[in-house]
């Protein structure tokens, strides 16, 4: 199966994050997988990186790379029954997220239209004193 690219790849990454989250919360998740997840999270949020986050793009790319590698290894560590239960829970969470995402996008669109109207009004007021 070819690797998804672009926006579809980000959706797959979101799905992997959900899957890892629900698998981590399972009672049968091993202590090693929990420690590894904690190490990956600690690296991503810590100010000490291989490439500092002050360097705009490169600093974020190393965090993203460590996160992707950590997710890959985490999903390999979990036993199949844990991943199956996590997949069911991730699918349910994804359906729920799609419902509220419509409302978030609607609210964002209304907010942007209000901001545009305010800018037009402000420009009109500045041009016609």
Order of helices and strands: HHHH
**From the alpha-carbon coordinates, what is the Rg to the nearest angstrom?**
21 Å
Proportion of residues in β-strands: under 5%
What is the count of distinct domains? 1
Task: Please state the average pLDDT score.
Answer: 84
How many strand elements? 0
What's the main sheet like? none
Can you give keywords for this protein?
129 residues; mainly alpha
What this model shows, in words?
The structure is a single chain. This protein has 129 residues and is mainly alpha-helical. The protein has one domain. Helix content is 80%, strand content 0%. The chain has helices spanning 7-24, 31-45, 56-77, 80-127. Helix 1 crosses helix 3 and helix 1 (7-24) packs across helix 4. The longest helix is centred in the last third of the chain and has 48 residues, at 80-127. The protein is flat and about 70 Å long. It starts with 6 loop residues before the first helix and ends with a helix.
Layout of helices and strands:
Blueprint: H1 7-24, H2 31-45, H3 56-77, H4 80-127
Short description:
The protein is mainly α. The chain is built from four helices and no strands.
